[in-house]
Amino acid sequence: DTAVSQTPKYLVTQMGNDKSIKCEQNLGHDTMYWYKQDSKKFLKIMFSYNNKELIINETVPNRFSPKSPDKAHLNLHINSLELGDSAVYFCASSHPTGPGNTIYFGEGSWLTVV
Amino acid sequence: GQQLNQSPQSMFIQEGEDVSMNCTSSSIFNTWLWYKQEPGEGPVLLIALYKAGELTSNGRLTAQFGITRKDSFLNISASIPSDVGIYFCAGQLSGSGYALNFGKGTSLLVTP
Predicted confidence band at B96 (pLDDT cuts at 50, 70, 90)? Predict the structure, then answer.
């Protein structure tokens, strides 16, 4: 009964590879996000989708391409992986009409690029 | 996005002690939230604050939304070992798709 689930939890890959992280939420939320947490634990927004439409796109290399096939899913595809892409990537979701637009996070995907 | 100033960066305390951490911003927010992250997990919401001056409790946790809307604090009373983790403040502007702006976190260690 996980609310926001993302796969894989751990991913080790070589530089130059292309990889995807999948995210699904069963909360009925309209808005989904991708956050990146660096080695110093700082959490920073990457993307936000509302009802499958991109509404936030922070300064992220275009090697990162989010895809939202429906409002319950937001996947993250990364091309030509670089060492600096190593981080924890968190998917999150929220309901815009809920009080304070509270955001709920998945458990994270630990990406290591070698 | 706005970066929040969260302090202290880390705390090492004994079980039973009270803990206080705070967050400030140069911009106002409509909502302040406090999250806790344990090792290997995602951030989990502890308390959400929606109005300036609001004081809200959740068990041993108490948080307040500053009157100026530019700050918030979180207190933990009578700490226990399972309080260990990283506590993040986050500010948010209302509206669809407004993402959270996070503080850098306060790492809390509690010794028995």
Answer: very low
